[in-house]
Amino acid sequence: MACLSFSASAQPAHEQTGRYMLAKCEALQEFMQQVSNGVSMPPDPDARMCLGYMWGVRDLYLMIDSETKKPIIGPCLSRTTTVRDVVRVFVDYARANPGSLDQPVLITVTPALHKAFPCRA
Q: Mind listing the pLDDT tens digit for each residue in 71-89?
């Protein structure tokens, strides 16, 4: 009989804050400024963590109701919104709102995206 053990997170929960992700996204932004074609994978693990997280956030907020064609949750990103856009909005917001950085990452990134991509009535 085999016994398997799984950890819920590779990082301690207290590190999953806006402050934690800001440092990683700043590393990604630095890499993206050096690469113009946007197809290279950043060599820095911190930059890759931001890339993966923000890609997931982008995909989450692109979900729309098939009948109403309106977002199911969150801000109104368009299909042309890139991960680069999401990272830029997050980094700009986080720098301008340092008081929000001790909140969980999603609590920090969501208002940033609502402000940058508001839903129209």
A: 888 799 988 999 999 999 9
Alpha carbons within 13 angstroms on the beta-carbon side of residue 92 total 11
pLDDT, tens digit, 9 for 90 and up, residues 85-116: 999 999 999 999 999 999 999 999 999 999 99
pTM value > 0.85 = no
**Which positions ≥6 away from 92 have C-beta within 8 Å?**
112
Which structure tokens are listed for 18?
A: 């806006």
Residue 68 exposure: Cα atoms within 13 Å on the Cβ side: 8
Helices (H) and strands (E) in the chain, counts: 4, 0
